[in-house]
Structure formats: C-alpha cells, structure tokens
Amino acid sequence: MTTLALNNVRPYGEDVKHLRIDVTEGRIAAIADEPFGPADADAVIDGGGNVLLPGLVDMHVHLREPGREDTETIATGSDAAAKGGFTAVFTMANTNPVIDQPFLAEAVWEKGQAYGKCDVYPVGSITQGLRGEQLTEIGLMARSGVRMFSDDGRCVNDPQLMRRAIEYAKAHDVVLAQHAEDHRLTAGAAAHEGEQAERLGLRGWPRVAEESIVARDAIMTRDYGGRYHLCHASTEGTVELLRFAKAQGINVTAEVTPHHLMLTDEKLATYDGVFRVNPPLREARDAEALKQALLDGTVDAVATDHAPHGSEDKCVEFENAKPGMLGLETSLAVVHRVFVEPGLADWRFVAKVMSERPAEIMRLEDQGRPIEVGEPANLVLVDTQSPWTARGAEMASKASNTPYEGIEFTARVVGTWLRGTQTFGLKD
Ligand code: DOR
Ligand code: ZN
C-alpha cells in the first residue's frame, strides 16, 4: 500500500486540515488536525494553506478526437483538464466521425483511461451523423456506458424527432442535452442580435432562437418525461423559462459557461474572431441574469464548452471565424473572479456548481463527493495568493484560442489528484 500525506490544506476554504490518502485504493484514509510526517506516509506534500475542493466535473467539452487531432486530442485535452482542476469531463459527439455508435464511444473512454489524467466520458449523438434526420441507437450506446446524448453544435430542431429522442432517453434513463438554437432564425448569424451587431454590421443571432427551443423542450419534457439538460444557457429569457419549468416540477437541468458569465458582446468591437462563440456573447443584463440564476440554483452547473480551434479558423474575418473558445484552464479562475472575489459566493458554492451538481446530474458516483474519510481522493488545490496572467501560448491545450488573453486572475490550480494519483501540479 502506498500513502500520500497532503498537509496544510483548507477544505472548501475553511479550517486548515491534513489529509492522508491511500493511493493504492485511491481514497481519503484519514483527516487530522496535526500534520502527517514522513513516518505516516510514503510521500508528504505541503499544501501551503491553499483551498481544497473536490475534483471538478465538466459536463461539456470538445476534445476533437477523432478527426481534428491537430487542434486537440484526448491526451492534450486531458492535460488541459487536469491543469484546470478537472477529474472528469464529458466530450461532445461532434467529432469526425461523429460519436453515433457504441464502438466509437468505447474508444473515447478507453483512450482517456489509458492516458489516465482525467475520466473522459463520451457523449453520444442524438441523430446519426448529427444530420438531424434519424435517431441513433440510443439504447445500444446506453448499454455500452454512454450517459449523455447530444447533437451539440447543432440543435435537434425537428419537434417529432425531439419527441422520440425524449421518449428513448427516458426509456434508457440517460440525459438528453440540447443545444437550443432554432437554425431557421440564426442562418448567417455571427453575433448576438442587438446594438453591437448593428454597429459592427454583423448578422444577429436573436435570443428567441434559443428561448423558443427551451420553451418547447420544457413542455415536451413535462409531457414525455426523462432527464433533459440545457447546454450553455445564454439569455435572460432562458433563465425565466427555466425558473418556470422548475417551479412546475419539470425535470430540467441547465449549465452556463464561464464566458457567458464574465464576457459580453462589447468584446466584439475589434472584430477579433476569438470572441466568436455559439451561442454568442450577449449583453450585460443576460450575464447578470445568468449569475443570479446560478446563485439561486435555477441554473445548476458551470460547464466550459471548451472548444479548441486552430489559428487558421480563428485569426480570420469575424464572420468566417469558427465559433468556440478554450475554457478548461481558466474556468475556475473565472468563477472565482465573478462570484468569490466580489463576495457573492464562497468556495462551497464553487464546489457545488463545478463538481457536486454536475456529478449528481450525470450520476457519477465517485465524483463531486464530500472531502471526508472513505471518499475517493478526487481533489483540486487552489492558490489565491499568486496572481497569474492567462496566455493562450502557455496552455496545455493544443489550441490557444482563449478569450482571456492577458487578463490577470487571482485563483490558480496548483494540484489535481485523480483517485489519489497526482495528475497536475505540486510535487513532494
Ligand atoms: O461555440 C461553439 N463551439 N458552440 C458549439 O455549440 C460547438 C462548439 C464547437 O464544436 O466548436
Ligand atoms: Zn459545445
């Protein structure tokens, strides 16, 4: 048996504690008020009084393998995840080929496990080839372990197909995650429909394109059941609809991205393609509504929508830039900036929205667990005393399309452990 002592840490930012981790079993073996010494453990790490949280869980990333390994792979995406404090991520199905069959999903999971830095859960597509025409074999993929289905990147627009998908997802007890965008209302759109898009001469993506799908899907979920999850909620109206649905007892959950919380379409002023994302950056009142919704639980979780793209697809005219931004390595810092720094929330809240709730929604039994004896040692250590500056070129991700280039943050991940094994950071 090998053991690790992680001394001098503050679980949830509270009192200083010392942990002994049974690395062989991957669990927390003891928590004490006095530090463990070399006699008690095979390796001793000084946590420096930093904040200790359960390992983060991201319900929405794009790791681009198979098909675009030039921009990210399961390995480089796992490196970025570990550096960002994540111990589990769900990678979307919009790869090439699309993850629409069990063997493809199994290959993603196995590659992640072989690399070993993060549990990489495959998301299966709802429709074959993301074409929005024929459903995939949701049952077969569910049997091979797929927990979430989504055509993310595309919306399941066809109401009849969506109804059937909801029914199948219910029958197989899996999560159906919708990218809510009525494509007929967003054809050719590159930016949020509003004053900024008008000023810049960009075609607008109206709020109603998202909200009309959210409303329809909530009612379908009411009538046909199942576990419905909304990807990247981005508008004030969506928040109102979620509040209505939850008040009715409809089984919907929702996520918000760090960029929709921190950034607005004011960023588009320089036509820099790095700020193109889908759904688009919106207005201050949307960001404010999303913040309140996360605080009061109307929105359940933060998910990054980590979407790596190469410079050939980003450093081009705004309308030609591919939508998407990196998120894994900056999300904790952004959530700290938006909620913890101004005193709107504490570290318990961060653990809830970035680890516990996503793990609950996805029914991951070994993630998002309390920091207690007997629990899996999936942990992240966060330093708030050494400011750092986000630089795309320094990221572990293969791509560098961060919208936070040059921004100084105060929260930094300094160590990540997956089942007791260190995947990033501090060494003894
Ligand atoms: O901005 C986005 N990028 N939104 C999506 O829904 C898809 C994603 C991607 O795959 O690049
Ligand atoms: Zn996405």
Helix content: 25-40%
CATH superfamily of the largest domain: Metal-dependent hydrolases
- Given the C-alpha coordinates, what overall shape results? globular
The span between the termini is 18 Å
Which distinct ligands sit in these coordinates? Answer: (4S)-2,6-dioxohexahydropyrimidine-4-carboxylic acid, zinc ion
State the strand order across the main sheet: 5-6-7-8-9-12-13-14
Strand share of the residues? 15-25%
The major beta sheet can be summarized as: 8 strands, parallel
Average pLDDT? 98
Contiguous helical run count: 13
What value does the Rg take, in angstroms?
21 Å
- How many discrete domains? 2
CATH topology of the largest domain: TIM Barrel
The CATH class designation of the largest domain is: Alpha Beta
Helix/strand class? alpha/beta
Can you give me a brief rundown of this structure?
By secondary structure, the protein is of the alpha/beta class.
Task: Characterise this structure.
This is Dihydroorotase. Belongs to the metallo-dependent hydrolases superfamily. DHOase family. Class I DHOase subfamily. Its cofactor is Zn(2+). Its EC number is 3.5.2.3. Catalyzes the reversible cyclization of carbamoyl aspartate to dihydroorotate. This protein folds into two domains: 87 residues, Urease, subunit C, domain 1 (Roll); 310 residues, TIM Barrel (Alpha-Beta Barrel). Helix content is 30%, strand content 22%. Strand 1 and strand 2 form a beta hairpin. The protein starts with a strand and ends with a strand. The model has no long low-confidence stretch (mean pLDDT 98). The chain has 428 residues and is of the alpha/beta class. Strands 5-6-7-8-9-12-13-14 form an eight-stranded parallel beta sheet. A seven-stranded mixed beta sheet has the order 3-2-1-4-15-18-19. Strands 10-11 form a two-stranded parallel ribbon. It is built from 13 helices and 19 strands. Bound molecules: (4S)-2,6-dioxohexahydropyrimidine-4-carboxylic acid and zinc ion. The site of zinc ion has 7 residues, from loops.
